[in-house]
Amino acid sequence: MNDSGADAPLIDFRGATLRLGGRTLWSDFELGVREGEFIAILGPNGAGKTTLLRALLGLQELSAGKVTVAGKKPSRGSSDVGYVPQQKIFDGDLGLRGRDLVALGADGHRFGRPWASNSVREATEAMIRAVGATSYADAPVGNLSGGEQQRLRIAQALMSDPKVLLCDEPLTSLDLRHQEGVLELLDERRRSAGTAVVMVTHEINPILPYVDRIIYLVGGNWAVGTPDEVLTTEQLSNLYGAPVDVLRVRGRVIVVGGGETPEQSHHCGPEMAVAQS
Length: 277
Ligand SMILES: Nc1ncnc2c1ncn2[C@@H]1O[C@H](COP(=O)(O)OP(=O)(O)OP(=O)(O)O)[C@@H](O)[C@H]1O
Prior knowledge:
- It is a single chain.
- The chain is α/β, with parallel strands linked by helices.
- It has a domain at 88-161.
- 29% of the residues lie in helices and 25% in strands.
- 42% of the residues are buried.
- Mean pLDDT is 85; it is low at 1-6 and 258-277.
- The protein binds adenosine-5'-triphosphate.
- Adenosine-5'-triphosphate is lined by residues 20-21, 25, 43, 45-51.
- Residues 20-21, 25, 43, 45-51 line the site of adenosine-5'-triphosphate.
- This is ABC transporter ATP-binding protein.
- GO terms for molecular function: ATP binding; ATP hydrolysis activity.
- Residues 11-244 form the ABC transporter domain.
């Protein structure tokens, strides 16, 4: 399923192909992401989800085709792109306070010499308020819960006021309440500021109320579309090249795979995959 895109997409992949270590991760990938769109990237381990984010960060050259972000070739350190890397829980001994972590996201383009300025302090305070972290912003980050830490990391990534926010598995190790908190925060940002959000995740059900479209990558194949378009028995069976059943049970999506790939992909038991929430 190819994406029709918009006139001037914020993210624009054209015929993008990426080969790494003798494997084709994805080929002829086409996608136009509009301002304020919320996109989730799904797929099994090793399908190339993080690598797709790396291409947007200017950290990974394409093997063929092209990609632009805000009309430009992606480049390292661009203030157009905010990035929340895969979660690492901060150590309890780390002396850094929440507000210090957020302030680290202030970049030279916007603030001049970051640490010295009042404008950084004010912007940090405003961002902490915006993500609802005021009550714990002065605590050492290592003492905070995973969900609280994640909020601060997103605040840090938003400090450069990026046009695009990339998040790599921001829901991992969060309970349902904190997952919803993070998703609501991302949703609010894309609605209020028009930031396009692109999120890698293994969690399907929590994201369904929020995302506009899904990119599903499997073994060199890809599909892009709304959750209803992509999460179907036919589409996933095509992508996996093996029988996969997509069931809807009490509003939840459950993917049951016949081969080994779907089970591996979503860290579930041997019989049933995905449907984690
Ligand atoms: N620099 C590299 N050289 C060769 N192979 C690489 C390189 N970087 C990544 N790979 C391989 O590319 C594949 C895709 O990796 P990537 O991290 O994008 O997968 P992913 O879909 O994010 O997986 P996961 O769900 O496990 O995080 C993996 O098989 C990985 O080993």
